[in-house]
């Protein structure tokens, strides 16, 4: 049976962790929040390689126990190339999902997540930089709604479709 690493990419607050955790629980898959593997004492841009290596190491460990791992982590093209290559070396197939959500949706009070001024700026920057519509994505998922359970079901169906095609 094939093994899969499913990456959820997107701007801060787009749902990577919430959706990833729910997808993992729904499918009996392991879940990794890439932010948990980063060095909290260094800015994110100074620890990308260290974090990426930790994601691959942890992902491979989790995949010894199951067939799928869901990974929440914002991706650049360089990350995509790195993860695709590293997991492929172990015969693990990858699925890349970009979560698309507007600034207004991400920061809406109904989502019950509050952001610092710096995070507000980073959200706007990440949307402008295209984190929500990466060209390398297998799926670009519109997460502009407020029905979390429906979003999990829709995303799960789209991921299952891509996995079945592989």
Q: How would you sum up this structure, described in words?
A:
- The protein has 166 residues and is an alpha/beta fold.
- The protein is 44% helix and 17% strand.
- The protein has 6 helices and 5 strands.
- The chain has helices at 16-27, 48-62, 77-88, 103-106, 117-128, 148-165, and strands spanning 3-9, 30-33, 68-72, 92-100, 139-142.
- Strand 2, helix 2 and strand 3 (68-72) form a beta-alpha-beta unit.
- Helix 2 (48-62) runs parallel beside helix 3.
On the 0 to 100 scale, the average pLDDT is: 95
Helix amount:
40-55%
Main β sheet profile: 5 strands, parallel
Helix/strand class: alpha/beta
Q: In percent, how much strand structure appears in the residues?
A: 15-25%
Q: What is the total tally of β strands?
A: 5
Q: End-to-end span in angstroms?
A: 12 Å
Low-confidence stretches: none
Number of helices: 6
Q: List the secondary-structure elements in sequence, H or E.
A: EHEHEHEHHEH
**CA gyration radius, whole angstroms:** 15 Å
Principal-axes shape call: globular
Strands in their spatial order, largest beta sheet:
2-3-1-4-5
């Amino acid at each position: 049976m094939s093994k899969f690493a499913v990456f959820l990419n997107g701007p801060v607050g787009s749902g990577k962790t919430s959706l990833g955790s729910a997808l993992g629980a729904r499918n009996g898959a392991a879940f990794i929040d890439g932010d948990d593997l980063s060095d909290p004492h260094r800015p994110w841009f100074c620890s990308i390689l260290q974090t990426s290596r930790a994601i691959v190491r942890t992902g491979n460990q989790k995949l010894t126990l199951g067939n799928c791992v869901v990974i929440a982590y914002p991706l650049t093209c360089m990350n995509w190339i790195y993860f695709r290559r590293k997991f492929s070396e172990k015969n693990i197939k990858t699925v890349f999902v970009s979560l698309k959500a507007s600034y207004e949706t991400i920061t809406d009070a109904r989502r019950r997540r509050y952001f610092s001024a710096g995070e507000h700026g980073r959200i706007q920057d990440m949307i402008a930089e295209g984190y929500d519509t990466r060209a390398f994505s297998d799926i670009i998922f519109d997460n502009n709604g407020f029905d979390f359970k429906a979003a999990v079901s829709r995303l799960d169906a789209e991921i299952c479709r891509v996995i079945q095609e592989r």
